[in-house]
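Re-run with default settings, no changes from the original entry. Doing this only to confirm the output is reproducible before filing.
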Amino acid sequence: MMRIGIIGGSGYVGGELLRLLLLHPQVEVTMVTSRQSVGEYIFNIHPNLRGLTQLKFVPQDTAELQKNCDLIFTATPHGGSVNLVPKLLETGLKVIDMSADFRLKDPGDYETYYGWKHAHHEMLKEAVYGLPELHREEIKNAKLVACPGCMATSAILGLAPIIKAKLVDTDKIVVDLKVGSSGGGSKPTSASHHPERFSGVRPYQVTGHRHIAEVEQELSALSDQPIKIGFTPHAVNMVRGILATIHTYPKQPLVSKDLWKALRGMYGNEPFIRLVKYQKGPYQLPDPKITSGTNFCDIGFEIDEHTNRLLMFSAIDNMCKGASGQGVQCLNLLMGIDETTGLKSTGFHPM
């Protein structure tokens, strides 16, 4: 059994990690830290876990983590892992970081998109971007995995096959995202508080969103040329889920079989990618409602001959495939076990 510690376990990402790891057959959660909830039973903060664990939140102590754990998930706010992770790695622990602190390879991107200078930029080359569909073999041997952002995950997975197949103009890509309120974290602001989102569709950070850096980084590496994207999220009336509607323009006329070839060529054996394009029923294209609680990414497409436009659709649960589920998938790869272990669950319907 691999012994797992979670730093920052009282937030939504920490809670989702606990939901998955407490039922995982090959790991044991030994320590969960929280600065604000020390001494509290975990189930008092995450009531869905009542009956599954008697663990309490404990203070963060590197020596205790080293003694009681083999691998650490860091589920701290952005900026909270940058100085912590190097100390954990020095003790011999492996780390899966759920924050943005080691996702980007260019240290200048942290100044551009996050507004701070990276204190350990030498570690950015060492960190492996935790998207298994693109970096599976690297993740298996990593000491530090930097899990992607939720919106970046949906955008990259929706675009990667058509970028790899060179089907579209890489100068004209626009990603429009509808995002659930849990993406704002467990401490609401006046903008992220769910009552302020209820019944509305509100664009925010319509240009210059920080996840742009991840998407451009990964797609540029896949295409061997610099790629720029337009990227605009919208706050919508749901708790979990992201739907990315991606507008692209083909280099030459496409038919459906061209898309199926690209999608199946890249994702044919992927355990958590489902291709969704049907001619009947209410769910003909991806819908985040159907991915809720799962580690699946549903991908579909439509060709608009009228405007020579190719639409890609990508739906995920932002808390699972967009965060903790993907982290557990990376953990399985690090452990050398079936990467679906502990993640084989369907969504709920109806919900």
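The mean pLDDT is 95. The radius of gyration is 20 Å.
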